[in-house]
Amino acid sequence: MTVQDFDISTHTYFLILRVQAKDPVSDTTLDLGELTKKWTFRKIPQNQQPTNYTTMSSSTPTNSNANIPLWSAAAVGFVSGMVYASYAMRLRDRERLRNACSRIQKHLLPPQRMALGPVHLTARKEKETILVVGAGAYGTAMAYTCAANGHKVVMHMRDPQQCEEINTNCRNPKYLSKYPLNPNDNAITGICTRDELAKYLAIPGIIVILALPCQKTPLWIQQHADLIGEDVLLVSTAKGLYLPTQQLVGHAILDALNRASQPLCFLSGPSFAEEIVQGYPTAVVIASDQLYLANKLQRIMSNGKTFRVYTSQDPIGVQLGGALKNPLAVGAGMIAGLGYGTNTLSASVTRASRELCDLAIAMGGHPDTIDGLSGIGDLMLTCFSSQSRNQRCGTRLMKGHAVDDILKDYTVEGVPTADVAVAYADMCGLECPIFRTVHALIHKTISPEQAVVSLMGRPLNQETTRANYM
Ligand SMILES: NC(=O)c1ccc[n+]([C@@H]2O[C@H](COP(=O)([O-])OP(=O)(O)OC[C@H]3O[C@@H](n4cnc5c(N)ncnc54)[C@H](O)[C@@H]3O)[C@@H](O)[C@H]2O)c1
Ligand SMILES: O=P(O)(O)OC[C@H](O)CO
């Protein structure tokens, strides 16, 4: 941040401020705004002075009087803001930088703030290399989003034919095949061999988006741990709880790497893959213990029009919200499969949201996170839309389809996650009647008729009583 120039004459003060800062992540200079007007500081009679800010005016100086104390106050404001901003930059914290810039702006009158313009941390300009692991529906949507923003995107998949098709015809033959994979003329490359994977994973600064089903993610990581450097940024999009060890997927990834830490982010929120590619405005959240990692991905993936990324420093809550909504969406589908109507669905989703909050908070999530995109937001999306595979699975189960047949047709994270959710509820001493009923219906330990009686016939109580605790 630099003061380019200022000039003080007896009656008039000319300020030309250019406000810049260095982005610690991209190492580029960010333009935060510019004050190019000539400001005149004039003395206002005591009884006309506003109480809480320094008065300046951009009118041409005529009879205005010099007012050194006012200028001093403004200068102190700017300098304190700059000191705070340089401190923020040392901390590599863009939020603090934003706050520092707001502090500077507080010393300006509203029209002057408008002249300066809003404080924008401009979008990252450099292009990244991004490796998307998994060429399913969500991997394709993630690759598309990153490629549309101009990044170099490579998708890794197991199937050589699928890979060939992507590289020759620019389409994923298995998922979202209607959409050409060259948004903004930036073609996505397919790779399928371990050697190619090793080559890309060795690129300094490579970002790896993991778009595999939750139950497959730790195994893939374990098989490729030797290729994944300790500074490779991993972004998990899996929305599930890992059944073999009953872990959050992040913990399972670290165990699979056999490392205590790794740059790791979690992307979650209400986002059907196809709607992303269709360009329907979509908002997601990316969480990391290290906020700067989430901030970095926020700038890489957001596009200002159709894809908006929020950041979070609650990776536990974001993982729990995205995973636990899935068995509840299976339950919503069961209601449709049993032929019930909107009363039943609305009541069930409302009570399900209470269970989701109670369980996620008991397991370490933050309440605000569960109220957000990765909790209630995604619960709404999947419970109310038959686009949801979890929702469709519930409907098919109630129509007599076998769960194994459904799982052969498509990924349903809610099925294995229901088992872990019930284990978590036991560990926390939570009643969670909807989770338990969905789990029992999936495993056919109760009939649909018994399920209705067990939910509707529970002891009567107040709506807001935290009766969920056993
Ligand atoms: N589809 C969506 O709209 C959506 C939205 C948000 C989040 N998600 C989450 O993203 C994750 C992936 O879901 P999806 O919809 O892309 O699933 P999908 O079934 O469409 O695709 C999964 C892909 O993973 C590949 N795969 C499976 N096992 C593998 C292994 N062992 N090694 C390598 N590749 C393997 C499959 O071949 C397939 O290409 C899930 O956790 C899901 O909840 C999906
Ligand atoms: O199709 P589903 O049920 O796996 O849901 C996909 C995503 O989780 C929606 O955000």
Automatic annotation (TrEMBL):
User: Which SUPFAM superfamilies does this entry report, sorted A to Z?
Assistant: 6-phosphogluconate dehydrogenase C-terminal domain-like, NAD(P)-binding Rossmann-fold domains
Q: Which Gene3D superfamilies does the record match to this protein?
A: N-(1-d-carboxylethyl)-l-norvaline Dehydrogenase, domain 2 (1.10.1040.10), NAD(P)-binding Rossmann-like Domain (3.40.50.720)
Major localisation: other
The catalysed reaction is: sn-glycerol 3-phosphate + NAD(+) = dihydroxyacetone phosphate + NADH + H(+)
Q: InterPro entries from the xrefs?
A: 6-PGluconate_DH-like_C_sf, 6PGD_dom2, G3P_DH_NAD-dep, G3P_DH_NAD-dep_C, G3P_DH_NAD-dep_N, NAD(P)-bd_dom_sf
Q: Does the keyword NAD apply?
A: yes
List the GO terms this entry assigns under cellular component, sorted alphabetically: cytosol; glycosome
Highest taxon listed in the record's lineage? Eukaryota
Residue span, Glycerol-3-phosphate dehydrogenase NAD-dependent C-terminal domain: 314-452
Q: Which GO terms describe its biological process?
A: carbohydrate metabolic process; glycerol-3-phosphate catabolic process
Signal peptide range in chain numbering: none
Indicate the segments forming the Glycerol-3-phosphate dehydrogenase NAD-dependent N-terminal domain, all copies: 130-290
Protein name per UniProt = Glycerol-3-phosphate dehydrogenase [NAD(+)]
Give one Pfam family, short name only. Answer: NAD_Gly3P_dh_N
Family under the similarity heading: Belongs to the NAD-dependent glycerol-3-phosphate dehydrogenase family.
Transmembrane region(s): 68-89
Alphabetized UniProt keyword annotations: Glycosome, Membrane, NAD, Oxidoreductase, Transmembrane, Transmembrane helix
